[in-house]
Amino acid sequence: MKIGIVLYPTFGGSGIVATELGKALAEKGHEIHFISYNHPVKLDHFLPNIRYHEVRPFDYPLFDYQPYELALTSKLVDVTRYENLDILHCHYAIPHASAAYFAKQILKTHNIDIPFITTLHGTDITLVGKHPAFEPVITFSINESDAVTVVSESLKRDTFRHFAVTNDIEVIPNFVEHTHYCNVPKEDDLARRKAMAPNGERIISHVSNFRKVKRIEDVVRVFEKIRKKTPAKLILAGDGPERYKIEQLCEELGVCGDVEMLGNVQTASEIYCISDLFILPSETESFGLAALEALASGVPVISSNTGGLPEVNEHGVSGFLSNVGDVDDMAKNSLEILKSDENLARFKQQAYEHSLNFSLKNVLPKYEAIYERLVNKAVAK
Questions:
Q1: Cα distances (Å, whole numbers) of residue 312 to 152, 295, 300
Q2: What CATH architecture applies to the domain 178-358?
Q3: What sign has the CA pseudo-torsion 334, 339, 343, 344?
């Protein structure tokens, strides 16, 4: 099949999942066309059957804000016509689903009936989409999609709760390609670990976009409590509006010497590979892809029990769940995992085994089945 994937090209979870999905589909022989305003950050190599199409909004003095949705609509029309696409897959509702709907109507005037699938990832529903300025468009676009998927049961409930959705919604969880992660550190990984923790300290990590919803201050506070009981180092990977606050808090708590702030990283897998524990205390997570990536690296997870996180992190098995903001409980659970080498090794093994439920080989066929159903239905018309 010839599949157009519409995505945000950034470090966010929706862009990562969309890119990895496209790469996996290309490896299976499908022809993939990524459509976005920039080169996807996770598209680190090209296969012969991968194409990238850049959306370039028209810069005109009349427009204070460039009309990206119109430019995207036109690009979807052009790529569908000239590349003979079979289906469009839109990741994130705003503005991808509405642009796909407009493109579909235009293409019908050219006797082309292309189906489109919309995958909802989280903040497009739980944050941005609920804004009164967007809600009517989002509701319409979801209902007009030929198929709708979400990444967790939690997000499915939120979608039906906040929008007047009459369309069916299928849950297809996020996934990982386990070959991209190491649950057994190699020589280079051990050298990096030695450089980070020269005296055998436990290594705690957190990876995110440093937004308020991630509650990164809780990560630092939990770490400070862990550090009082056992030697430890903290790796913070990512960047965003909360970074300055975190730097201030590290100074206030006197932990700066044991905290490494790396900024945005291309390959978080190198961080997971040397970690003993991953902390994700978010206010809400529709899924929690970073937690899954940690589990796939054999790293147990301490997380809040909100949104889709309980679907990813199994309490007492792959790690522990705590109420949002309960740093004392998170610290207690962290120390339970770290209390001995034997206990840590057991949780690491359990974390990896649990992550196998979200392997790419289990998830990819679910998307292919939807594509085939929709394309066959369009051909039969």
A1: 9, 9, 11
A2: 3-Layer(aba) Sandwich (3.40)
A3: positive
